[in-house]
Amino acid sequence: MSLIKWTEEDGGRIRLGLPSDLDLPMAQPLLDSLRAAFKASADVAVQADAVERISAACIQALVVAARDATDRGAAFVLAAPSEVLSEACEDLGLAAWLKQWSRA
Amino acid sequence: MDDLSRFKQTYFDESAELLAVAEAGLLRLAPGEIDMDEVNAIFRAVHSIKGGGGAFGFNDLVAFAHEFETVMDGVRNAEIPVTTQLVDTLIRANDVLARLLAHAADETDAPDGTTDETVAALRRFLGKAEAPAEEPPPAPAGTLYPDDEDDEAGIFGDALAAIQAARDDQPSPPISGPVPEGKVRWTIVFRPKAELLLSGNEPTYMLRALRRLGDAEVVCHLDKLPSLRDLDAELLHLSWTVTLLADPQIDRAQIDDVFEFVADDCDIRISAEAPPPAVIQAAEPLPAANLPEPAAPASAPAATAPATTSGSPGAAKAGDGAKRSNGSGTSGDHSGPTTHTIRVDLDKIDRLVNMVGEMVITQAMIAEHLRDLPPGQFQELLEGLESLAQHTRELRESVMSIRAQPVSSVFSRMPRLVRECAAATGKEVMLVTSGETTEVDKTVVENLVDPLTHMIRNSIDHGLEGPEERERIGKPRAGTVHLSAAHRSGRIVIEVTDDGRGINRAKVLSKAIEKGLVQPGATMSDEEIDHLIFLPGFSTADQVSNLSGRGVGMDVVRRNISSLGGRIGVYSTPGEGSRFVLSLPLTLAVLDGMVISVGEERFVLPLTNIVESLRPKPADLHGLVNKCDVMMARGEYVRLVHLHRLFGIPKAIDDATQGLVVLVETEDGSRLGLVVDEVLGQQQVVIKSLEANFRRLDGVAAATILGDGRVALILDVAGLREMSRHGAGNGNGAGGATPPSPSLPAPADRSDQRQRQTV
Question: Cα separation of B163 and B301, whole Å?
Answer without folding.
Answer: 28
